[in-house]
Known about the structure:
It is built from 6 helices and 7 strands. By secondary structure, the chain is of the alpha/beta class. It has a domain at 2-110 and 142-158 and 184-192: Rossmann fold. The radius of gyration is 16 Å and the shape is globular.
Amino acid sequence: MLSIAVFGSGAGSNFRAILTAIQQGDIPAARISLVLSNNSGAGILGIARANALPAIHLSRKQFPDERSFADTILSTLGDHGVNFIALAGYMKQVPPVVVGAYRGRIVNIHPALLPRFGGAGMYGMRVHEAVLAAGDTTSGATVHYVDEEYDHGPVVLQQTVPVLPGDTPELLAARVLAAEHELYPAAIRRIALNERTPGHHRN
Length: 203
């Protein structure tokens, strides 16, 4: 059973897609055990509370140092029986000690076809602007395992979308986000069904 903590900073649309898939029985042997955000006003926390799920605000700013922040994240995850983390629009780097504790059990979704347009500073609209500036004819989304480098770990699943003539970053972003909402539940379903061994990448 995947006991999932979802980390997010914003509206929570990918979290909603995952939650809906679980509620509809599309992802067997998985449950959402915790939602955590660095932003006290994030929509993702509101979605969690509306579904009677634990919703916790934890920010680095609340702690005197990185270690106490990381320790509190780990203890909170432990208190809720979490064995898997899904990053869904989480705009902060996860502390390395947390990544280490959940190695092979933490995934992220990125709005491009990694390894293209990934890395530090590549988030949100910046990604779509870079895709258009490069003249690529396809973009998409990637679910990947998380390691200590931004957007670096092994790929779980990818989904492509076309870049259309006349696209703006906003139009492309909307098309990629729709793909994300299909891709992320599918990737977690794959992991939950052990179709892919967590932490290992098969070509």
